[in-house]
Amino acid sequence: MIGYVTLGTNDLPRAAAFYDAVAAHFGLGRMMEFDSFIAWGEIGGAAGIAATVPFDGQPATVGNGVMVALEVKTPEEVHAVYDTAIAHGGTCEGAPGPRGGDGFYAGYFRDPDGNKLNAFCMVAPDKSEG
Asked: CA nearest 106: which of 93, 116, 92, 121?
């Protein structure tokens, strides 16, 4: 069971502003905060997300192939989270839309440090495709 996912940052105040805005879409705020680490979520709730300055003092780097998926209920929420991420310094990695034909709907973005995330939901597959 995943408790939370931690992503590295080289600018914790910038990461905090980004994740404060994204977490607000889920009705969540900060659940832990230290000088070099902030976690968003709800104690005892679903898995949370955290941003941290690396403990070893080396620069934070992006993991190739690593992505955090944020589940929402509707395509409109996918767009809202994606738009908030872009408005707060994120960059596009794939605009919101259907992926595949099995009802997977997602928008992909990177945080200001380059960590890849998506907002996704499952919707009824479009039977008119194909």
From this structure: 121
The CATH code of the domain at 4-53+66-122 is 3.10.180.10
Q: How far apart are CA 26 and CA 92, in angstroms?
A: 20
Domain ranges across the chain: 4-53+66-122
- Tens digits of per-residue pLDDT, 28-49? 999 999 999 999 999 888 999 9
| Beta-strand runs (E) in the chain | 4-8, 29-34, 37-41, 48-52, 67-71, 91-99, 104-110, 116-122
pTM: 0.88
